[in-house]
Design goal:
23 helices, about 475 residues
């Protein structure tokens, strides 16, 4: 199943229901185009013509699964298709239009605007007057602003058209809640290696080419990284370069695809070694080496969004509270790259990498978190002490929930010295977090030492009457 490659701009609306337009993906249009199929790109020739031809997405399309049921019910519903590139979001929308003989109106949120939305509404009304359904498909719907997304609401509610939005971003954050509440979110997964192997076999047959040798096929599939469109485009380019009868082995792929494939076999050791080198250079406070490995990854074609995720992890794991600004800087770099793309946004990644490398280092929080997890996994489920429990009802108050709790803001210095916050039986309480003597954690360590001194003084004061007695 290939996303976003099953046709270009939609054609004019059909003059009558019996003559489906090219935009609606009708069978008449497809038959008219069969003569040109021999010259069409491979991805176009392998476009699924029915639901049974679709590869992948078994959790949505197998018997009894949500999208299969939607197709078979005869009643389409508005939905958001969320998944990475090349997994079939556009394909599913077009197949749904075919299944219901619906007018198919496609809008690109990257290039479109209010004018396109109005035109879609007009086409939907025309289809309705002809007794046909209409499906409005918005690609990259997260690119529309709130006002543009809201423009769909009254028409979705009235049933003028079925809305299908496609996005690579989490719809919880990028799609308006009002629109989200009127659409079912379906999560699409990257195409599995097994399904990509089947697609590669179909591609070999379609091109009349010898199948790649097993090792080369594995490299191609790893390079595609779950993206069917990328697999087909890459394989077709290789066949064009070497000829359909040539043997395609790993050496052939190296020669045709160059450093990009050689450096970044996504299933191979070198890819992970390079990521490891970047992480260790940052941890080792070597900005020049860190920049070198960053550029190697970008030059090799690694998805910059993957790099941003790793940088965010480095900020949390290796810099931590020694410089809390590092985490925010990495999040800002990720957002900047999303807005600017490549190559402009790559400078923000370089800035983040250099900052992480020169920032003071601390894994104290990382170590404390692992220690706390290990402790909880081995320990039992201890009850929450009564004084720490919430007491929203009279019954809970009568059971002493919250009794004797000391409100820190009412205490001297805003600290309830000697107060106990662990379960009662944990004595002495464990200590997980140990600040390092670097960066902001120097001051954090001093602060914790002061608070512990107050706790010790409070404990000594509480024990003094017993000692005098």
């Amino acid at each position: 199943m290939i996303d976003d490659l099953f046709g270009g701009a939609p054609s004019a609306p059909a003059p009558a229901p019996a003559a489906a337009s090219a935009a609606s993906g009708g069978t008449a249009s497809r038959r008219a185009g069969e003569a040109s199929q021999a010259h069409a790109p491979l991805a176009e020739r392998l476009r699924p013509r029915s639901l049974d031809e679709v590869i992948g997405q078994h959790s949505l399309l197998d018997a009894g699964k949500p999208l299969r049921v939607a197709f078979e019910s005869g009643r389409p519903h508005s939905m958001i298709l969320w998944g990475p590139p090349g997994v079939g979001k556009t394909t599913l929308a077009r197949l749904m239009a075919d299944a219901f003989d619906a007018e198919f109106v496609q809008i690109s949120a990257v290039l479109g605007g209010v004018k396109d939305i109005r035109e879609a509404v007009d086409r939907a009304r025309l289809a309705q007057a002809q007794g046909r359904r209409c499906i409005v498909f918005v690609d990259e719907v997260h690119r529309f602003n709130k006002a543009q997304q809201d423009a769909f609401l009254p028409h979705v509610e009235s049933g003028l058209f079925t809305f299908i939005g496609a996005t690579t971003e989490n719809p919880s954050f990028e799609v308006n809640s009002a629109l989200l509440s009127r659409a079912t979110v379906h999560v699409l997964q990257p195409i599995s290696e097994e399904d990509l192997q089947g697609l590669l076999r179909r591609a070999s047959q379609a091109l009349g080419a010898a199948a790649p040798e097993p090792a080369a096929a594995q490299r191609l599939i790893a390079y595609a990284d779950g993206d069917a469109r990328r697999l087909l485009n890459t394989y077709e380019n290789v066949v064009r370069m070497v000829g359909p009868q040539a043997t395609i082995d790993e050496a052939t792929l190296e020669r045709c695809l160059g450093a990009q494939l050689r450096r970044y076999d996504k299933g191979g050791e070198q890819f992970y070694d390079t990521i490891s080198a970047l992480h260790k250079s940052v941890r080792g406070s070597q900005p020049d080496a860190a920049l070198y490995w960053l550029v190697r990854m970008l030059d090799g074609g690694v998805d910059a969004r993957y790099i941003t995720r790793r940088l965010i992890r480095m900020a949390a794991e290796d810099i931590g509270l020694a410089d809390p600004r590092a985490l925010r800087l990495c999040l800002d770099a990720a957002e900047t790259y999303e807005r600017l793309g490549s190559p402009e946004g790559e400078l923000a990644l370089a800035e983040a990498v250099v900052y992480l490398a020169v920032a003071p280092k601390s894994n104290a929080v990382y170590t404390a978190y692992k220690a706390a997890r290990a402790f909880v996994e081995k320990d039992g489920t201890r009850p929450v002490p009564l004084h720490l429990r919430n007491a929203p009802t009279k019954l809970m108050k009568s059971l002493d929930y919250g009794r004797d709790y000391r409100y820190a803001h009412d205490e001297a210095g805003g600290y309830a010295a000697g107060e106990h916050y662990f379960p009662d039986a944990l004595d002495p309480p464990p200590q997980f977090y140990a600040p390092v003597p670097r960066g902001l954690e120097i001051r954090i360590g001093e602060k914790l030492a002061q608070l512990r001194a107050l706790d010790d003084a409070a404990a000594a004061a509480a024990a003094a009457p017993d000692q005098s007695a």
